[in-house]
């Protein structure tokens, strides 16, 4: 079973300025929960109990959120508001949280490498909190991927079909389907122009990685935008037949964009409105 989930959470969130000037983008709320808590809950469902979070300057709010607030709990203890903290207390009780900092912003590959000491020599999940996912009909995406990992024991990326004109926003894969919804990856390109994209299958912010990825990242040269891209590192793994792509079941919202954030808010409001209190 995969126990550890890595959360790269050091980005600036510039598309949400000025809201993210003093608040981590991962703490932006969808209804009453911050984005990163949705990701942690998805990881818990998949069987993870160690959350490894790579942060940066100005991100202390993430650590404070996944900690007990004795003063707040004392103030609302015994009142009608006490139950509001039940969900986050359950999360804190179920997990161990570990943290390190990405000192320089050098891309997702570098952020994942920065978390190496939090992972040790075992396979692990990666969640990008910007991508908020939900599967109302069954298991969450990470739980689906974990089942697939038990069968194939290799790196897995979650993918979805996109409009080809948007290929320059994503890592794009190509490969041969080996079972329904599962492809053996033979090509990966980071943010290609539509005319250069090998397919319309885009990688989203859910990965399962094996620990040998760290050595591959160390040998990966800066790519698109001068950053160390996880897509480039995974391409080297794919050349050895060690990467699968999975067309997940469920919905994904790009909460790194204002449009996707609003769409996710509306979706979860409709889903949860009967449970919300005035």
In short:
This protein has ten helices and 13 strands. The chain is an alpha/beta fold and 278 residues long. The strands form three sheets. A five-stranded mixed beta barrel has the order 8-11-9-10-12. A two-stranded antiparallel sheet has the order 2-3. A two-stranded antiparallel sheet has the order 7-13.
Characterization of the model:
The chain is an alpha/beta fold and 278 residues long. The chain has a single domain, classed as Spore Coat Polysaccharide Biosynthesis Protein SpsA, Chain A (Alpha-Beta Complex). It has helices at residues 35-45, 60-65, 70-76, 86-94, 108-114, 116-119, 141-152, 213-218, 230-238, 258-272; strands at 4-8, 29-30, 33-34, 50-55, 96-101, 124-127, 131-134, 155-161, 171-179, 182-190, 201-209, 243-247, 251-254. Strands 8-11-9-10-12 form a five-stranded mixed barrel. The protein has a two-stranded antiparallel ribbon with strand order 2-3. Helix 5 packs across helix 9.
